[in-house]
Amino acid sequence: MPIDHIGLGVPGVESAKAYYDQLMPMVGFQPCFGNGYCPNDWNGAQLFLYESSADGAYSRHQSGLQHLAFLVATREEVDTVHAWVRDRGDEVLHAPRPFPQFGEHCYATYFLDPHGFKLEVVCQSPAAD
Asked: pLDDT band at 6, cuts 50/70/90?
């Protein structure tokens, strides 16, 4: 059974939306339902932002959500998101590169959003000749 949606608790939905409104179109999603993002083709899991208390700090190093990965069709899309993240001054954990341990053609970048959520943009297609 596929996953229908994922919810992220953030201490400020509007500030989180400002970030995700820019990121999500680059990875094939569009805004939907006020606080969410749906795949452009409406086929696949949706992402929703929910208000949470600011006193509980998120950590990808504790039990719970470790990271979210967005699958894109081309390596150029991975590079585009990486450039956007870098230009914003956000923390890049891994610049775009092959990750053969996750598949023969796996090419990805990892970074943190403004709330500390670890995000990945990954392509599983071979490099263009």
From this structure: very high
